[in-house]
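notes to self, project folder thing:

trying the whole complex as one job this time. last attempt i did each chain seperately and stitching them together was a nightmare. three parts in total, labels are on each line so i dont mix them up again. if this works i'll redo the older ones the same way
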Amino acid sequence: MIGRLTEGVPRRALVLLAALFLLLLVFPAFAGGYLLAVGFLILYFAFVGQAWNIMMGFAGQLSLGHSLYVGLGAYAAAALYVHFGVSPWIGLGASIGISMLAGAAIGFLAFRFGVAGVYFAILTIAFAEFARIGFDHFRWVQGSSGFFLPVANYTTNDLWNLRGSPTMFYYLMLALTAGAFVLCHALLRSRLGYYWLAIRESPEAAEALGVNLFRYKMAAVVISSAMTALAGVMFAFYYNNLFPEQIFHISRSIELILGPIIGGIGTLVGPIVGAFLLTGLAEGLREVMLRLGIDVPGVKQVFYGICLLLVVMFLPDGVWPPIAKKLGLRR
Amino acid sequence: MPVEIYLNVAAGGLLTGLVYGLMALGLSVIFGVVRVVNFAHGEMMTLAMYLALLLFTTLGLDPLVALVPIAAALLVFGYLLQIGLINPFINRPEHSQFMLLVAVALILVNAQLIVFGPDAQGIRTRYSFDSFQLGPLIVDAAKVYAAAAALVVAAALFAFFRYTLLGKAIRACADNYHGALVVGLNVKHLYALTFGLGAACVGAAGAMLMAVIDVTPSIGPAYTLLAFVIVITGGLGSMPGALLGGVLIGLTEALGGVLFTPSAKSMFAFALLVLVLLFRPQGILGRKAA
Amino acid sequence: MSALELRGISKSFRGLKAVTGASFEVAPGAIHGLIGPNGAGKTTIFNMVAGVYAPDEGEILFDGKPVHGLRPDQICAAGIGRTFQIVKPFAGLSVLDNVVVGALLREKRVTAAKVHAAQILERLGLAPKRDLPASSLTLPDRKRLEVARALATRPRLLLLDEVMAGLRPTECDQMVAVFRELNRAEGLTILLIEHVMRAVMALAQRIVVLNYGKIIARGTPEEVVRDPAVLECYLGEEAEV
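result (full assembly):
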């Protein structure tokens, strides 16, 4: 099976990927607490960016409300753990299930009623906002006061309950991101992938070739939302507190799409490159500003905004395609 | 609860709704003509609100008077935005343009956060605590003035599009881009002017709103969403639709806030949006896309 | 039994009658032409057969089974393939991958679909360009790609919408040869909309003439070009590229 997955991939790419993976594996050995946290963040955005990329980059559906799935996944697993002591490995089943239902509902409404393009994006925003306000009043998970997970001591890593050191979370996130990468690669080569790309390029032509638009668009939405739910579970157990105002907020939705857009929508590596660049540069900027004694909230976001602007204006396909060309990985 | 309370709340909602309507009018004009989805609409409004705040605290200018220079400033801002950022990329796919404005919104909101801070700031004019009494109805004077100003500006805009040559030229561009080019209209300039006009509406609405509520940077995105809800509900491309939608949303919010919890009031706006998107995507007064 | 049968098909768009009471039959294995001035309703008929719209009145039968009102993807699965008047290649995909999308309708595995797609590319002379991005093709090649894609779905009836438009006479002759071969070797039934008379006369065994949404003549090419009603509706029209 590994043979089938790697067939057709240029050797250079495989070598580079292996090297990168090895680097990421040994990273915690020589990274301090702060860098490790940054590393986790980069991998988090790389993972969730890949999940979003499936909907947008592969199937062409612009979702600006993806924070909905992060939030639902986070709250589901966290609530089961806090109220019933259920391990997050089991709880994530609920997270995925609930997110998939939400995704399916949005997809069904949108695709059955022909809501597309920008209107679809607005619909996704509306649902995320609905959840944000709704969860503010959801007493079972403490609503707007915030839902807290009990923070145990970090001397031992309790993998089963996802209680442990930042290093444990780092490796978990690395596994998730690598897994997502392999999954996306496999998906792109499958019937699903071909049909998605066809739908993205020309839905009319795809339909005329026998592609059931509704079924495959739904598949993209449901798979994307399921993957994003996993990110939510990690978010809950890493940060240990959940506030509807934050986790469902539209700026979260925008934050997680910056990576794929800047890296390159529709490419396999784009979201990962984007996450590295964006988070890396942003944290670097923060360091520089702290050294200069400036600590103003909002600077990071302005930086993100400027990056987004520049990329959309001058590198519409993202940062990765020209780099890939230079590295000889593409025609 | 006594009926008077509902009536008062409804009246207040209706008046605020007119100001919302003006804000949405700006969005409708921009989308109807230039076909750009202005995702930075609410952020431009908070920009106007902060400008009104500044003018009040430094020069003592009443926001309803300051609305003129603020509208003018935003007209220029909108014009430059269109010319500099959007026109060059007019042939890009739809979501590309959308992302451009998402970026602008991001920058605006956080720039405001950096400059003005996150705390709510408000204006107290000499009429802030006045009210009018019409029979059983008690309405805030500020709301009445703001609503009146909104109607005046909206009427001026209608007149502009109907009766002036420039207005007709803009409508021509909206109806038929290539046709307009062929008869020699400077479409790029007209597009920029239209964006400017839309921004000016938002500017005026912001100044008016400053007389009624407090401003924080985070209400920007909320108002962008609200503007979309209004425009989609009332009908994209329909100017009366935007005003009607604004009033409807103002009413829904106000009544929803009093019937249920105040913090949940925007849920009704969203529920309405979803319903409209599903069952009548062209909105109440909109025409179906040709 | 005819391959395709239209019975009393009508369609209006917001009060404008695009097609009124159209009826005709296409025999299996035949090549049928649909001609008429611009705006006569030819593409509307195509779109109704292909499932883009449902007819307001009337029935469409394919191999005796009703297909009117089905979705385009269901129509394709039933065995009707189509090309578009304005070609719609999957620009970001390679030439081969474009055809693979079509082939995946009939093949379970991607590998088998790729083999089938490669064979079709050979047939249409596109094999040397299989790995190029579809966006880099010239117009004649794009038209061929459009046909290749539709063929990959193993249609029994192929709807060709002005496939010769913009092609030079030699390119046009090449396309005609391809269709003739497909018709002869596999008994592929073809219904084509065409303005290029050179192609219509060379390919079509029977022709249906449409004007203002109504059928005004039908018959063999020789009969139709002499029909006075046909001559009248084309008077002043450029009938040849």
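what i see at first glance: Chains B and C do not touch (no CB pair under 8 Å).
need to look closer tmrw
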